[in-house]
Design a protein that fits this description.
Blueprint (H helix, E strand, L loop, with lengths): L1 H22 L2 H28 L2 E3 L6 H14 L5 E5 L6 E6 L3 E7 H6 L2 H16 L2 H28 L2 H47 L3 H22 L20 H8 L6 H9 L5 H7 L7 H10 L2
Parallel strand pairs: 2-4
Antiparallel strand pairs: 1-2, 3-4
Length: 312
């Protein structure tokens, strides 16, 4: 994670130093300030947006004392303050950690998750989400996502200025503006790939955290993930609109958009939880799988389960 962050920050700093030197700082400074300010504001109010979009409500201790006890125990083991425990009214089984300085830290489980997984699997999923909070993944991903956004806006600003600039200024600087614009767009895509890679890394680290604080966590989380994928695709086939969760899918423990591809890997493997995982581990990860993973916020399910298997 540190190495990836260093690459992202290094590329960004180098490029912006050159741009600001060649073009002057006033307009670009305010553009960057605006983008950073907008992203920070979005981060601060995101929990309230998520609550509204996914119809999230707080779970009181009286509603589910057993789940609260699990969060209490695992938060203590993680060495972090207990987050607020929330329930999202989503049929797809999933869970996510989120929060901000003004909203506090939160962990949400979906109604589908509570119906699909056994208590021990829910425990492992909670351990995973606490890992995100322990590692401050919400803050890290917010910070990293700002940089590609800046390149995106800088690139298109230069492209538009080269096309719609006036007379002589367009003739004198149009070629340079186009070149800077194209390089900016290229770096936007490069940094986006690094950001997605970092997102996948944080899932591995959160998985590892779960196995470190949950007894027999590798088995529990593996079985939970396999069942989440299987049930997610079943629900999406039955109710297509139920799977439309693109807005904040990076938050989830499993990417709902990958449910179809992942579910094909575990189709017709029998009903036993352990059998489901064992059969999936035998599947080959093809070149196509590896290529598609480059553009995903979550690791390939087979690779993810193999890493969990090694942590036994």
């Amino acid at each position: 994670m540190v190495g990836t962050l260093a690459i992202i920050i290094g590329l960004s700093t180098l490029f912006f130093t050159i741009i600001l030197h060649l073009t002057g700082t006033f307009s670009f400074t305010w553009l960057i300030v605006f983008i950073i300010g907008f992203n920070i504001l979005q981060w601060l109010i995101a929990p309230y947006l998520i609550d509204a979009i996914y119809r999230v409500r707080k779970i009181s201790r009286s509603d589910n004392p057993k789940l609260h006890a699990v969060v209490d125990q695992l938060s203590q083991k993680s060495g972090i303050k207990k987050p607020k425990l929330m329930m999202a009214r989503i049929p797809i089984p999933n869970a996510f950690a989120y929060g901000s300085p003004i909203a506090g830290t939160r962990i949400a489980v979906t109604e589908g998750l509570m119906k699909t997984l056994e208590d021990e699997e829910v425990e492992a999923v909670i351990g995973h989400e606490l890992g995100h909070l322990k590692h401050r993944d919400v803050q890290v991903m917010m910070f990293v996502s700002i940089l590609p956004a800046i390149f995106y806006y800088v690139g298109y600003s230069f492209m538009l200025s080269s096309m719609f600039g006036s007379g002589r200024s367009r003739d004198n600087s149009g070629g340079a503006a186009i070149a800077i614009g194209l390089v900016s767009i290229f770096l936007y895509w490069v940094l986006t790939l690094f950001t997605l890679y970092l997102s996948r890394l944080r899932e591995y680290y959160a998985d590892d955290h779960s196995t470190s604080i949950v007894e027999d966590g590798s088995r529990k989380l593996s079985e939970g993930l396999a069942k989440i994928v299987n049930e997610s695709e079943r629900i999406k086939k039955k109710k297509p609109k139920a799977g439309h969760l693109n807005s904040f899918k990076a938050l989830f423990i499993s990417d709902p958009d990958r449910a179809l591809a992942d579910a094909k890997a575990i189709a017709n493997f029998g009903v036993s939880d352990s059998r489901l995982v064992d059969e999936l581990l035998q599947r080959n990860v093809t070149g196509v799988d590896k290529f598609l993973e480059l553009f995903s916020t979550h690791p390939n399910i087979v690779k993810r389960l193999r890493i969990l298997k090694k942590s036994n």
